[in-house]
Amino acid sequence: MSDPLRPRASLRTAVVWEVLRDALDRRVKAAGREDGGVLEVLDTGGGSGNFAVPVARLGHRVTVVDPSPNALFALERRAAEAGVADRVRGVQGDTHGLFDVVGRGAFDAVLCHGVLEYVDDPAEGVRNVVEALRPSGTLSLLAAGLGGAVLGRALAGHFSEARQVLADPAGQWGAGDPVRRRFTAEQLSELVTAAGLEVGAVHGVRVFADLVPGVLLDAEPGAMDALLRLEAAAAELPAFHSVATQLHVLAERG
Fold first, then answer.
1. What angle do CA 65, 67, 72 make, to 5 degrees?
2. Rounded distance between C-alpha atoms, residue 166 and residue 145, angstroms
3. Which of 13, 61, 88, 161 lies at a CB distance of 3.0 to 4.6 Å from 79, suitable for a disulfide?
């Protein structure tokens, strides 16, 4: 079972997981809840539960909205194996019709990870997930970074494709690109601000992890931990946002 705390998965999730866990802890303390600090969390596009299950392990209730029945089936199985089936609920849907399946203003935190790259209208997608938040809610937004794609294609020797990423309005490298849209940190921050939230922090995710050959991590003792520490150190530095594979924005109301 994939878990943000396991080494291989951590290369892709560690930075976001640490930021998210701290944000949820702060939300619990700020709320002063009498129910033991249980938050209502919405995970849009949460798939098979890479984040939903670990969040449920913290004691929170998580609703996962995803268009894929197969992903939701895998989520159910994963939640059961982790012993959190009573705290994880999966419903079929997407951000466009979000309020057909969940209520407005019903959640303390919303995760929108890997969604904006594929929706027809990113601004509408952000507005919808923001409307799902309670007045003091927290948004965790994760999307594909423009600069990381440029660097990745260039280092692979695909120089024309790297240039195409820069020229294309959606940041695609060609017709075969599986990612429909990529963003800069400024673009994501503007979407969040326009939806009425205040940006608390921006992080670069997978700045180095996608560029380091796996054989190096397997051959060098301690290389995995060292790379994780490097990713964490670079994540908050604006200079590295422009070359990150993904960008993470943490935002709140008021």
1. 65
2. 12
3. 88
* φ, ψ for residue 195, nearest 5 deg: -85, 0
Tens digits of residue pLDDT in 195-252: 999 999 999 999 998 888 777 777 778 888 899 999 999 999 999 999 999 999 999 9
Amino acid at 20: L
Task: Find out whether 14 and 231 touch, Cβ atoms under 8 Å.
Answer: yes
Per-residue pLDDT tens over the stretch 100-131: 999 999 999 999 999 999 999 999 999 999 99
Residue 172: count other Cβ atoms within 10 Å of its Cβ: 19
- AA identity, residue 145: G
Identity of residue 10: S
CA dist 68 and 89 (Å) reads 14
Residue whose tokens read 């866990």: 21
Instruction: Write down the pLDDT at residue 254.
Output: 65
Q: Could you write out the three-class secondary structure of the chain?
A: CCCCCCHHHHHHHHHHHHHHHHHHHHHHHHHCCCCCCCCEEEEECCCCCCCHHHHHHCCCEEEEEECCHHHHHHHHHHHHHCCCHHHEEEEECCCCCHHHCCCCCCEEEEEEECCCCCCCCHHHHHHHHHHCEEEEEEEEEEEEEHHHHHHHHHHCCCHHHHHHHHHCCCCCCCCCCCCCCCECHHHHHHHHHHCCCEEEEEEEECCCCCCCCHHHHHHCCCHHHHHHHHHHHHHCCHHHHCCCCEEEEEEECC
- How many CB atoms are closer than 10 A to CB 205? 28
